[in-house]
Amino acid sequence: MKRIYVIFATMILAAAAVSCDDFLSKDTISTLNSETFFTNAKSLELYANGFMNSMMPDASDIVQSNDSYSDVCATRTGLSMFTTVWTSSNQTGWAYSNWTNLFRINYFLVHMREVSGVSEEDLLNYEGIAKFWRAYFYFAKMRTFGDVPWYDKPIDQDDEVSLYKPRDSRELISHKILDDLDFAIANCYPNVETQQADKWKALALKSRFCLYEGTYRKYHTVNPSTGDPWDDDEADFYLQECVKASQEIITTGPFKLNEAVSTTNYRKLFTTEGLNHSEIIWQREYNADLIMGHQINWDFWNQNSQRWSMTRTMADMYLKLDGSRYTQSANYGKDLFPDEVANRDYRMQQTIITPGYQKEVNGELVQFPVQANGTLTGYQIIKYCYDDDKHMSGNNFTCIPVIRYAEVLLNYAEASAELNNGVLTDDIWNKTIRPLRSRAGVVGSKPATIDPWLSAYYMTDKSDIVEIRRERAVELFMEATRWNDLMRWHLGNKCVQTWEGIYIPGEGIVMDLNSDGKPDTCYGTGNQDGVQYFDPSVSSFKLSGTTSGRLIYDLARTWANKMYLRPIPHTANSINPNLGQNFGWED
């Protein structure tokens, strides 16, 4: 069924069309004549659809968000905060345009009941939709800046107390987010057929938010905005709320996993034109009939792009099909690529190019190897891509998941384990981790011993926590979760570790990465027909050893603990000194 996408009327806030250098101040606040707009049920629908249109993440937000700068993905240029001297003068995100959506939401909540002829049930549904989006807005703001000012009504241009108030505490913001989500859960219709907020999306967002906040407070001993201990020890409270929200979706929701063991079903979740209401709770729809597409395919294949590439760290997390750990294999670290990826979790071959991958080129299906001019590590991503060369720039119509049922299962598992001293009961393991692994062809029983490699990597001796974190990385790769996971686990330093790739037996040695009997890839320089080169003379490539070793894309990056939050922009503080500055970012 075709959806009607409503472009949010620009006249609603004509004064919002100000420079993005104009920060929240009394000069940029405008009002809307509610008497001429909020007249009937249709006006509520139009306004509420505006939230969806302006706030719902798009393909690039999800696939190429901050996950691109985490430990599991290498990019050509890296995150500016890691590669330059970053100060509050560099920081953006506090301009009037960054707060416009909040103003629209609060205006709607204040005036929506001025309509006539709308049932109380419908009004509560629309109120729930608005509060869902307010929670979504503040969750993003809090992840970025920590303490932020809370506004639950539109600000009058003469209200200097509100305009120039200090930031509110993270504790207050967190509880307000939870209040809004609980209201949405209680009052939004359970309508899975739409992209608009509903009960299930609110429950899923609550599951994500509460896991984030619960573990953030557990693994950060102080509030990073202030450098002081948390006002209240509420880690377990949020973890319990995550469990409750997740359980409600699992036990009463209409979602389920496709548990068929397959080498294709996982990837179909990301390459299908059409909404999947069975396994995906919330997704961004793209539609060829409406000429609404994205260009993820082009971005991942274009040699002039960022060349998003899986890292060796990520590749090492995939188990072998028998459930054993590749990192404990006899030739670990020195296997040539075809041997490295053989008999691994089926999700691996559905996420990156491996031997046997086929792509349609000029109308002909061919064995397609890793493209050295399209990857920085040799692990070339195909998770969101079509298997042909016809869908390149701007004409991809695959729907992009925002929150999947699999994430809710993983949230449930992690929160449950964190509440139980790191131990996941067999019952919950069998409901969450086991089915995800089993459908990927992996023996799904709980490991009898802790993985020493992952234990050292994640700096924890909790075996079940280690396995849950492995599963999150594998199942949710490049789905806008990894960066947030590292931030909440207090592992931000992992974002700047060396980006390693496939094993190179030596400079000038031509390899056959797709096992078709033809040479296709080489480290060094040359011009052999059919061979692509990781050329250290033109790119920042090197080897981990003197004459052989892991391929390294060498990009200097720096981490500091203050980077768990961004600084409050200098311009914002110049206008409103009451905002203060996040701990460590003081000028």
Report on the structure:
The chain is built from 22 helices and 14 strands. Among the domains are: 1-56 and 100-188, Serine Threonine Protein Phosphatase 5, Tetratricopeptide repeat, CATH 1.25.40.890; 197-228 and 235-258 and 275-284 and 404-479, no CATH class; 499-545, no CATH class. Helix 9 (199-219) packs across helix 21 (482-488). The strands form six sheets. It has a three-stranded antiparallel β-sheet with strand order 9-14-13, with no helix packed on it. It has a three-stranded mixed β-sheet with strand order 10-11-12, with no helix packed on it. It is globular. Helices cover 36% and strands 8% of the residues. A hairpin with a 5-residue loop joins strand 13 (541-543) and strand 14. The chain starts with 33 loop residues before the first helix and ends in a 12-residue tail after the last helix. It is mostly helical and 587 residues long. It has helices at residues 34-37, 41-55, 59-63, 80-83, 100-111, 120-145, 160-163, 170-187, 199-219, 235-252, 265-268, 296-301, 312-317, 337-340, 346-349, 405-419, 426-431, 433-438, 452-458, 463-475, 482-488, 570-575, and strands at 73-74, 222-223, 228-229, 280-284, 309-310, 358-361, 364-367, 400-404, 499-504, 510-511, 521-523, 532-534, 541-543, 549-553.
SSE layout:
Blueprint: H1 34-37, H2 41-55, H3 59-63, E1 73-74, H4 80-83, H5 100-111, H6 120-145, H7 160-163, H8 170-187, H9 199-219, E2 222-223, E3 228-229, H10 235-252, H11 265-268, E4 280-284, H12 296-301, E5 309-310, H13 312-317, H14 337-340, H15 346-349, E6 358-361, E7 364-367, E8 400-404, H16 405-419, H17 426-431, H18 433-438, H19 452-458, H20 463-475, H21 482-488, E9 499-504, E10 510-511, E11 521-523, E12 532-534, E13 541-543, E14 549-553, H22 570-575
Parallel strand pairs: 11-12
Antiparallel strand pairs: 1-5, 2-3, 4-8, 6-7, 9-14, 10-11, 13-14
